[in-house]
Amino acid sequence: MSLRAKFFVVLALLGMTLSANVVLSVWSIRFLERELAWPMRSSQPVLKGLFDIKRLGEQQTQHLGVGRFVSTNETDALLSDEQAKIAAPVVLELELRVSAVLEDLDAVGAMQFKSGLSTTSNLQERSRKIEELAESWIEEQRPEQYQELVARVEARHELIERIEGRMIDDAALANTYGQRLRVLIYSIIAIGVIGAGLVAVYSVILLRRWVLAPVNQLRSGAKHYAQGDFEHMIQVNTTDELGQLGDEFNHMASMIQSMQDERIERERLAAMGEMAQRTVHNLRTPLAGIRALAETTQSELDEDSDLRDIQQRIISSVDRFEGWLQDMLRVSSPLQLQFQEFNPIDLIKGVIESHRGAAESRSVGIHLNSLNNAGDTILRAVGDPNQLEHAITAILSNAIDYAPSGTAIHIDYGADSDYWTLVVRDQGPGIPADLHASIFKPYFTTRKGGTGIGLALVHRIIHQHHGSIEVQSPPNGDSEQGTAFVMRIPIEPQDRKIE
After folding, report:
1. Nearest alpha carbon to residue 247 among 218, 210, 209, 206
2. Which of 31, 234, 239, 442 could make an S-S bridge to 246, C-beta 3.0–4.6 Å?
């Protein structure tokens, strides 16, 4: 279906929606009008009950021998003793019927809504008092009881008339309000229909300008991208979703090359992992033979022989190299740090000793110095010593490879309250300033036969310790040649988890 066809489908749906809204509005008006008649309908059982109570009250006053609104002073001699004896039981029976009517009204929810909870309770209390007076009047026949009984019946009668008047007034107001509401809602619907028509016409104009034109431009840009023309830029002069989509199209074109590069890097990483596995497999057997030969030679030497120390260094170097081979197998896996307490100075000295033979073979010296007379102030730190050893080894190995013969590599260490620092300086050819940001990227190397993994792994290890590493070439901005790697590592990382 074409976009134009979809556009007309949207208009048809809009018309159907508008029609449904009109039907719903008309139904709502009838519903509201019907609901507004509820006050009158709900008043019917209440009014009937109140009417029954009034009628029973009038019968009580008739049997008491008085008409309506007779003052208590006029009721002194209205009944003789014989008449009172006859009237009292009848009045009590009528009051019991009033109580029954009140119980029925109490079950009607509209009673409390219309008259109020206190009014219902008031009527029940009045009825109870009249029953008590009627019972005591039957037994004692005192004039003051008769007078109070007549007064209470008349007072209840007046209260019921006030309730009826208020309910009738409320019903009249509700009826008037319903008529006004109907006219108002009809007017609102008419205005809404006219406004919806105008909005529909205006929407067609805006949709052509804001939707159809940008979509055509996006379609044209997609054709260019399908043909491989990733330099084509989509010009969408809006800031809405279509404008954002155009920007995303442009960004997508620039990202395709990056995605291809990432795919090549992943393939290269897979190849490096496979190569590492083959390398480890091929090196373990001769290493095991070297270690076995060194152990055998060491056991055959005298205790005071100088060669025993050399053989022990060979064994230690082989064991350390075996650990590095294990690290090669994990180079493509997520880096898992095993935090524990260690002595950074011992760690640095161990790395130096393992590389001293390689440095001496190239006539390169290694000097360990203390920054600011730090001495042994960093006897304890928290981190992964195996990974940090691997990082320091990679830095020192590079320094040995690039240091000219007859020069020295200076390793300086120090500490403050939060960090311990290690600086490895050589006097090699240095690193151009424009490459300082690239040397820590995976697979970037300037050395023939290099893999570009070493410094990238160093950067990863240091940053996972929440530390930092930077390169200075020349060191400290001096004019002399050389390179310095400065590492700052927290003495105790905040998110450490000691194993």
Report:
1. 218
2. 234
3-state helix, strand, coil split of the chain in percent (to 5) is: 70, 10, 20
Distance of CA 190 to the CA centre of its chain: 44
Contact residues for 471 (Cβ-Cβ < 8 A; gap 6+) = 431, 436, 439, 483, 484, 485, 486
Interval 439-461: pLDDT, tens: 877 666 776 656 667 788 888 88
Q: What would the pLDDT profile of 276-290 be if each residue is shown by its tens digit?
A: 677 776 777 787 888
What is the identity of the amino acid at 225? Y
Query: What is the value of pTM for the model shown?
Result: 0.42
Taking each helix axis from N to C end, the angle separating 307-329 and 344-361, rounded to the nearest 10 degrees, works out to 110
Q: Which of 464, 489, 485, 458 has the alpha carbon at shortest distance from 381?
A: 489
Nearest partner of 483 among 409, 430, 422, 423, judged by Cα: 430
Other CB atoms within 10 Å distance of the CB of residue 176: 11
At residue 421 the predicted structure's pLDDT band, cuts being 50, 70 and 90, is very high
The DSSP line for 17-60 is: HHHHHHHHHHHHHHHHHHHHTHHHHHHHHHHHHHHHHHHHHHHH
Using one digit for the tens of pLDDT, what is the confidence trace for 127-168? 888 878 777 777 777 777 777 878 888 887 787 777 777 777
